[in-house]
Amino acid sequence: MPRVKSTVERLSPGQKMVLSALACVLVAIVAAPLREVLDLANMVMLFLLTVLVVAVSLGRNPAILASVLGVLLFDVFFVPPHFSLAVSNLQYLITFAVMLATALITGHLTATLKEQAAEAERRERRTHALYEIASKLAGALNEAQVREIVAPFVTAELSGRCALWLAERNHSGAGAVEGFSPVLAGQVMASGLRRVDHAARHALYLPLKAPMRVRGVLLVQTPDRLPEADLAFVEALASLVAIAVERLHYVEVAQRSEVDMATERLRSSILSALSHDLRTPLTVLIGLADSISLAAPELPAIAQEKLDELREQTRRLAGLVGNLLEMARLNAGSVTLRQEWQSLEEVVGSSLKLVGDALGRHRLRVELPRDLPLLRFDAVLIERVLCNLLENAAKYSPADGEIRVSAQVAGDFVELSVSDQGPGFPEPLSGDLFDMFVRGNGESTTPGAGLGLAICRAIVDAHGGRLRVANRPDGGASVQVSLPRGEPPLIEPEVA
Amino acid sequence: MSEERPQVLVVEDEVNIRQFVRLALEAEGCAVIEAGRLADGLRRAGEGPVDLVVLDLGLPDGDGIEFIRSYRGWSEGAVLILSARVEERQKIDALDAGADDYLTKPFGVGELRARVRALLRRRQRNAGEASPVFCFGEIRVDLARRLVTRGGAEVHLTPIEFRLLTMMIAHPGQVLTQRKLLAEIWGPSYVESSHYLRVYVGHLRQKLEDDPAQPRHFLTETGIGYRFQPGP
Q1: Residue B199: is its pLDDT beyond 90?
Q2: Selected residues 287-326 of chain A with any CB under 8 Å from a CB in chain B
Q3: Which of A358, A426, B45, B75 has an alpha carbon 20 to 30 Å from A351's alpha carbon atom?
Q4: 3-state class (DSSP) for residue B85
Q5: Chain A / chain B CB contacts < 8 angstroms
Q6: Is A349 within 8 Å of B220 when comparing Cβ atoms?
Q7: Residue A287 and residue B16: Cβ atoms within 8 Å?
Q8: Whole-structure pTM over 0.80, yes or no?
Q9: Which chain A residues are closer than 8 Å to B222 by Cβ?
Q10: Confidence bin at B1 (pLDDT 50/70/90)
Q11: pLDDT band per the 50, 70, 90 thresholds, residue B125
């Protein structure tokens, strides 16, 4: 049945008219010999039936033609006098009028009904097609597959060609369509409104509007101008493609972050293995050096001296390894700050205790105001900053020099400075000091790898603070750490 | 001490570290039992009364914290942890699980001996009678009369300050985690409010330390908690 219908539908309007006329003439010829046998009223019925059949199979205009032609043929062949338009009995005029009216109304109603049925069927087919492509797109794993699904679809449903232009790729696959204009695609992309390219015939640029953003442009080129109903159809197609493209985008994002996480895990597991492997022999070295004194308490002076030296160098090495690992962790981004509201005085105290012996004979002056606010920072990391600064100060200061630790509130920051009476930083001061392995004085015999300040800055930066170096007017270096004040939480007053 | 040598179990997978730890412990007059694995350690601990366990947190066949949890199920013996510096979280977990103290690798024999001495001494003191009066530096705390004097002059402490002081002097030389202190003194809903602790420890230092910025008694274990050190 659909096959027959489609052959009829393929006829041009003129052919349909001829067919309609032929049908009427055929009925007249077949019915003519029967006019003596059958009543005229029955003849009328035959013509009305013809109009109905024509309306169903050929549509409205052929039905109108059949109505008029039917009346004429009825008059000429069946109403006496035969073969003349003249009418013997005026009653027949009423018959003609009723017949014409009935034929026209029947034809009109039938044709309308048929058109509606055809429209509904077409819509149903389109909906089904959209449903099918939606389920296919849902299974697409990459952009190539999306293209492979969309192109045949456009060919089958609209007899056109299409191209997909994606913003993030900038490659087109647009070669399939002649006269594709990337400029126009860019404009559609920016405005989010569909456009017709009048230069290339019937080229329709549709924005791929996904929930998050416009993902690209779908170009559809059809042989004829698309009717209004089909515009809605291609819009629907565009939004399906948009959703598929956006889904692929997020799949990619998810995969990328999974890879990142795996890399991150690998990095931190390498670091912790390295940390373990380096610390173990250091622990053994320090322990064994200490054990010698236990095993032989009365060592000759020279041996004791060498032993102390060994111990000292090992401790220095341990400090260095600690700094290296810390820097590696900071650089790898695997450090999460454990920020809590802390007392600066407390961290200064614990740093001084940790550095302990290294401060040696230096005079120490700590000047902290009593009313310093609590600050939010990672105490372990800030302690490391202070230890590094104190060790540096002790390293570069003359034996009896003074090391000064002071703090003050300055606007939205609290500034903590550590200064010494050493030679100071080489002028002119530059940011290089903060780079890894750069030391103030390259030729210096003072031990150290120049990691200290780099770590300090990485830590202070991570806290949203600033690290600055300066030379004091009276000689000596000064390093200033500024940490943001923030809003310390309230302390409920104690109920006595 | 000759008759009753303290029994110390060393659970550490590195033979070299185990060796010098043994030397240091023997110099302290302890009898040492060694174990290289967690399962082995637990078995040895179960075989006889052990006064102190020196435990490495990273063992090849499991986490040291598992050892502590299991061990605390049936023993009150002291536990000293050995751990690398980067593992703050692990140390806190181990202390909260019931460990008494920790040492950060690399550590010197001197530090190790001091910690071991403190832990063993505390066990002996726990066995003896508790005194209502506690002295450190020029501070005298009369727990029964709730009276604190510094060089003879009375020091006024608020109730919370006094509770904090009491709790700290009840655990001399021992690390108390922030969580433990907050839960004990302010209540379980305050375990995340470490700023209370900062402020109140600050008060105690202002009132009882010579130089609050360089405390000698109320020591900070950065990132972990506090330690009260009675002696110099």
Answers
A1: yes
A2: 287-288, 290-291, 293-295, 311, 314-315, 318, 322, 325
A3: A426
A4: coil
A5: 123
A6: yes
A7: yes
A8: no
A9: 347, 350, 379-380, 383
A10: very low
A11: low
Instruction: Out of A287, A322, A347, name the one closest to residue B109 (CB).
Output: A287
Q: Beta-carbon neighbour count of residue B131 at 10 Å?
A: 10
pLDDT for the residue A157: 85
Six token digits for residue A143: 């952009």
Residue A3: pLDDT band with limits 50, 70, 90: very low
Q: What's chain A's average pLDDT?
A: 83
Q: How far is B74 from chain A (nearest CA, A)?
A: 31
Q: What is the ipTM of this complex?
A: 0.86
- Considering only CB atoms, B24 lies closest to which of A291, A383, A494, namely A291
Q: What are phi and psi of A409, to 5 degrees?
A: -85, 130
CB contact under 8 A, A383 and B212: no
Tell if the CB–CB gap between A343 and B202 is shorter than 8 Å.
yes
Confidence of residue A240 (pLDDT cuts 50, 70, 90): very high
Q: Which of B14, B85, B198 sits opposite A341 (nearest CB)?
A: B198
Residues of chain B neighbouring A369 (CB-CB closer than 8 A): none
Cβ distance A350 to B195 less than 8 Å, yes or no, reads: no
- Scan for tokens 């006889």, then name that residue: B48
